[in-house]
Amino acid sequence: MPIKNIALLGFMGCGKTTVGRLLARKLGFRFLDTDSLIEEKSGLSIPQIFERFGEKHFRKLETQVLEEVASWKKLVLSTGGGLPMKDENWKLLQEKFLTVFIEVPFETLWRRIAADPGRPLLRRYPRKDLLEKLYLERLSRYRQADVIISAGESTPEEIAEAIIDHAQADC
Ligand SMILES: Nc1ncnc2c1ncn2[C@@H]1O[C@H](COP(=O)(O)OP(=O)(O)O)[C@@H](O)[C@H]1O
Ligand SMILES: O=C(O)C1=C[C@@H](OP(=O)(O)O)[C@@H](O)[C@H](O)C1
Ligand SMILES: [Mg+2]
């Protein structure tokens, strides 16, 4: 049985984009990242979209790009951290992908996120405790994924290999 399309989920900074690219290369799959697709389509960066049109508009674009690519084959899709929260997105992810949550302790996420100016949600949640609240709110959805990888201090390479093991066991 061929390996299903894989969607990577998790909070900002958990490594969805980094691991997704590597995983796709290892599997010989196409790599797509919803944020990059949105940037390509709109000709604007994610922070520019948030600034000019607001988060609501960004969330509509997320659903659009997910719908566009969900039926493609041999795909690794790295999602934006908020994408699985919308029920219609979650339903589509569950139908079309093996969903994989990359679980990383919040302390590690905070270290990575705080060093990166390209994440507009930091403006809305400018303090560690505020962002942690958002993380905790999202956890229950992420934990419904088909596969949970407790990434700890693992390297992207190790995480990609662990996902391949799970994906092969699944088919
Ligand atoms: N397993 C890892 N170990 C160490 N650093 C990582 C790991 N995965 C990602 N990173 C780093 O963390 C940051 C966020 O990674 P990214 O792939 O953009 O996460 P996401 O797409 O989930 O927001 C990047 O600087 C990346 O190099
Ligand atoms: O968590 C979120 O709501 C967001 C996560 C970002 O993607 P990453 O999770 O890849 O950083 C990006 O989609 C946008 O800044 C909003
Ligand atoms: Mg990303």
UniProtKB/TrEMBL annotation:
Keyword Translocase: no
EC code(s) of this entry: 2.7.1.71
Record keyword Magnesium present: yes
Catalyzed reactions: shikimate + ATP = 3-phosphoshikimate + ADP + H(+)
Localisation: Cytoplasm
Cofactor or coenzyme needed: Mg(2+)
Predominant cellular place of this UniProt entry's protein: cytoplasm
Record note on cofactor: Binds 1 Mg(2+) ion per subunit.
GO MF entries: shikimate kinase activity
Keywords, sorted A to Z: Amino-acid biosynthesis, Aromatic amino acid biosynthesis, ATP-binding, Cytoplasm, Kinase, Magnesium, Metal-binding, Nucleotide-binding, Transferase
Protein's name according to its UniProt entry: Shikimate kinase
Organism encoding this protein: Thermatribacter velox
Origin organism lineage: Bacteria, Pseudomonadati, Atribacterota, Atribacteria, Atribacterales
